Each structure stands twice: as structure tokens, then as C-alpha cells.
Records
---
Amino acid sequence: MSRRRKPTVHVHHCPGGWVLPDYSDLADCMTNYQREQDGRPPCTAPAVWKVVEDYGMHLTIGFYCDTDLPAQHRPQEGNAA
């Protein structure tokens, strides 16, 4: 039986927003798909948070605005990101 490895998570903050790898534009907030499914308007705030989950064999990268950053990735009060 294979055990799933818990990812190592790195959270980064860039106040001006994150640029896409091809430098074509700023990254959109990752919650826009879920917002559309819920009938909410798309997020227009800049994606200022990047969450990288390292699973060893692959990475997942998510971009979030301040409002939509998942609670488990929020910096502790008093700690800088």
C-alpha cells in the first residue's frame, strides 16, 4: 500500500502581484473557477500570494488575492511572509 506524502508548503507574498512565467500578464486569483460555480463575480484583486506545495515528484502552485488566501496558509499574526 502506498502512503501519500504530506506536501511541504511554501507561502510567498508579492505586494505588486505575481507575474506569469511567460511575463505576459499578472496571475489571476485561483478562486475564480469556484466563484463562477458559486454564482459570485470573479475576483479582480491582484494575486499577491503564491502557495507552492512540494510533493517530491511534483509541485502545485496557486495564486491568491488577500481575501481568498486559504486560512491554513495565512501567516501567523506578527510573522512576516
---
Amino acid sequence: MTRSVRAVAIVAAAGAVLSAGVAAASAQDPDPAPTTTSWAAVDSPDASAGEDLTELTRLSDEAGALGEELHLARAELAVAHAERDRRERDAGVAAGRAALAHNNASRDQSLVDHLATRRYRIGETGGVRAAALAESPRDLVDRLGTLQRLSGATTSALDASRAASAEAARLRDDAALASEAARTSAGDAQHRADELDRRSEEMRMRIDEVRRRVDALSDAQRARWAGGPVMPPGYVAPPVDSVNSAALRVALSRLGAPYSWGATGPSEFDCSGLMVWSYAREGKTLPRSSQAQAVSGAPVAMADVQPGDLVIYNPGATHVGMYAGDGLVLHAPTYGVPVKLERVDAMPIDGIRRY
């Protein structure tokens, strides 16, 4: 069967499931035994072929885990850049305030100097000298009044100058701290960017290796690598009664879609990308990485799991799928394995989150 014919058959099967109201086969075992994940099913009469697939499984798992870590690193880098920009703005504002305070302090000091000069020119050394210099009783009253006003103004101006100088010094300290914080934040952002570049190159090499090995598999090996059908016989999609079950229905429409690292649809996906795309179609925004998805939303016990809940797998939350009901999970497994339904307990469950 050609690839295009297989794709048509997969889509047709998925459409039949989504429109069905009852199971097509009632003789199905009501509680089938758990199976391993498709890309981990390496049992083979040929021991060397099994060893090849075991090694490929390890490489694929490592590439998938690194891919999810890079999604998280990119999100953290965006946050670091935003923090750097905020701190640089804060430093600029603080520097402007410090400059304004310095100008105010200089202005107040000039006023103090001006008032002191005036007091000197009119001979303010006390009332006795004012009386000696006065040309008449009226002149004496005017001189004493002027001296009193100048004394009060000088005292006020001196207080204002001291306060402005202290404020200017405080704001200069604030500006220096803000500038240092901005430099630190910029350095952190650059370090994250450099580390992301390094790990992205590592990711590219891992992807190339996995692709090379999968593409070199024999037909028999490729069939074992892909595992069973994308959808177990008799599966019926749960009714749509919430945003979560609606997101599941959207995700089910992509049964058989190929896996691609970093892809978020609509024709190719990685594991977290399928979750993001499906919920986005229903108006909900999910974090981009499986690690971030594992700590967002609300935690759910396995006994309370519902269709549309996200099932987080493996220590480190390196994989994610969507609970599809009937003890099944819908997920994008790895390169060479299409989006499919498998037993929810086929991999070590790290947690369940509801959005």
C-alpha cells in the first residue's frame, strides 16, 4: 500500500470513529492487558534487529526529551529578555530622576547663595547694625522687615537645598543599582541564549542520527518500530461536553499525522505541540513544553482522569499525551511513529493536569 493510500485509510478510520455512537465490536476484551509503547516494542526473532531498535529507542527518547527541554529553554529565554528590557527601562528612569534631583539641588543652592548675598549687601549682622544704618524710623522698620523675610527665606531655601541634595544622592544610588541589575539581567539572557544555541546544535545532531537510523530500517523493523494501528478496534470517542473533550476531538482528527520535532501542526506535531494546537483550536493557550505543561493547569488523580486531561510521562516530564477515555492516551510518540492511541499506562506516568 502506498503512503498516500495509507493516509487516506487512516483519515477514513478516524472519521468513522468520531461519528460513531457505539462500538463497532462488542466482543472486544473489556480490560485488555497493558502494552508497551510502540517505539519500545523491540521483541524480535532476530536478536540483532531487536538490539538495533533498543538503541534507536534510547536515542529517540533522548532526542524527544532534549526537544522538550529546548521548548522550555526558549520560553525562559523570552522571559529573561523581557526582564532585561524591564530593568534597562528602570535604570533609564532612575537615571532621569537622579538628573532631575541634581538640577533641583543646584537650583536650591543657587537660591541660598543669592539670599546670602542680599543679606550681606543690606548689612544683616543683627538689629543693632540695621538701626545704625537706618536713615529714619520708617527706614529702620523696612530694614528689620526685610531682614526677617530674608532670614526665613534663607532658612527655607537651605532646608530645601539639603533635602534636594539628599534626594539626588538617593536617586543616584537607585540608578546605580538599577543599572547593575540591568547588566546582570542582560548577562543572564546572553548566557541562556548561548546555552540554547549550543543545545540546539546538539539537538540537530541527535535528530539527524535518529532520522538516519529510522530511515535505514527494513520494512519489518519499521513495522515493529511503528507498532500497532493508530486506533484500537472498537474505540469510540467520548461525547463533547466541555472544552477539554472538544480539544480531544480536535486532537483525534490528527490520528496518523507524522511526528516532527518542534512542530505544532496542523499537519505535523511533536508531543507537546499536539497538545498546544488542539487546545488552541478551542481557545485555550497551553505552555509550549511538556515540562511547563506538567506544572500548569490543575493536578488530577488518575482515578479522576477525564477525556482531554494531559497525561505527563517519565521522570523530568519529557513526554505528554491527552487522555482519550477507555484507558487510552492520544499522543505523538516519536519520529517514524504517527499520532496514535495507546494504553495510558504504557509509559511511566509522572502526573496528570487539567486545563
---
Amino acid sequence: MAQQDEANPPQEHRTTTTEQGRFCLARCTCGWRGPARRARSLARTDATTHTAGPFA
């Protein structure tokens, strides 16, 4: 079992914000996607909240 854990280290969450038309949304390398926001600051807050969550 220990060998299997070494082969699959926990994935680091890396978030980015992406603009789609008038909206901005946060995305993560784990597949998570935040809601579309009109304010970039809210999309960044969504990303920060996701990476600070219990599963990060």
C-alpha cells in the first residue's frame, strides 16, 4: 500500500480565472469550476475559497 501512495501523490490544486464574454469564472486543475461572475474579484474569491476548502 505504501508504494501505491508514493506513485500517486495528492494533486495540488491550481486555480485560474477565465473570461467568457462578459463573465469571469474560476477553474481548478482538479476539474472544479466556479459559477460565472461579472466581477473578476468574485471569481478570484471563489478560487481562493476552493483552494482553502477541506478537500484542498
